[in-house]
UniProtKB/TrEMBL annotation:
The lineage of its organism: Bacteria, Pseudomonadati, Pseudomonadota, Betaproteobacteria, Nitrosomonadales. Gene3D superfamilies: 3.40.50.1100. The keyword Transferase applies. It comes from the Bacteria. Pathway: Amino-acid biosynthesis; L-cysteine biosynthesis; L-cysteine from L-serine: step 2/2. Residues 6-282 form the Tryptophan synthase beta chain-like PALP domain. Pfam families: PALP. Keywords: Amino-acid biosynthesis, Cysteine biosynthesis, Pyridoxal phosphate, Transferase. It comes from Nitrosomonas communis. Its EC number is 2.5.1.47. Belongs to the cysteine synthase/cystathionine beta-synthase family. GO terms for biological process: cysteine biosynthetic process from serine. This is Cysteine synthase. Pyridoxal 5'-phosphate binds at residues 72, 175-179, 256. It catalyses: O-acetyl-L-serine + hydrogen sulfide = L-cysteine + acetate.
Amino acid sequence: MFKTIENFVGRTPLVELKRIPGETSNTILAKLEGNNPAGSVKDRPALSMIKHAQKRGDIQPGDTLIEATSGNTGIALSMAAAIMGYRMILVMPENLSIERRQAMSAFGAEIILTPKEGGMEKARDIAEKMCEEGKGVILDQFASPDNPLAHYEGTAPEIWRDTDGKITHFVSSMGTTGTIMGCARYFSEKKSAIEIIGVQPEEGSQIPGIRKWPANYLPKIYDPKRVSRIILVSQHEAETMTRRLAREEGIFAGVSSGGALAAALKVSAELDNAVIVFIVCDRGDRYLSTSVFN
């Protein structure tokens, strides 16, 4: 029996950085989520949310799905909707990269742009209003337990297997917080000593894929008790490390990945003989129209 595209979501490579870490007894490993079919870590929760909602009877093929997104979830949901026969409406701030919009459109999604001044908060408000008006169903990546479940069942077990259980520190940029929540839950069940490090932007920094939410917009799936510590990174640090990943390690990634690497290096500077895994959320080709690689 031949496989379909959805069978290739997950099982992404875990690779060791050789040049950027410098002289150290630590091992720094990058989980290459850009290798998923639609190009990001969000392929996992997108497929998970649609499949589980369908299994529960909340949705059925032919329905219209609505989601507020900053990019990667929208692309992943567009792919999953195309696979499974749903109409997809995505609500997103107008200032996000043109490559992301084009990818969503390529999968057949309808895009509604919101004012950049309102950010993702405004996009979320508009999506909820559309749902209330009966224009579609919101899967809600910020509240759906099927988001972190995808990482509990997939991402974390893969990391555990590929490190032979030797992982000591897990570093993840925080957006919806699905990745860090699902992985933290799994690792806590395997070895409580694993330190879970979340990455957020410094005040005034705008890093695609990394957010620090106002209290009333904090994702409902987020449990602060599962995070050992939070490291703040600047936009300059994130962009610099994104360029270095490409030029020194051959890993062409997005800016949130550079932020996660910056945090991983800060952790590494404090340790000896550690195994540090960080998430490379997506590919760099989604940011070519920005100034990151100039």
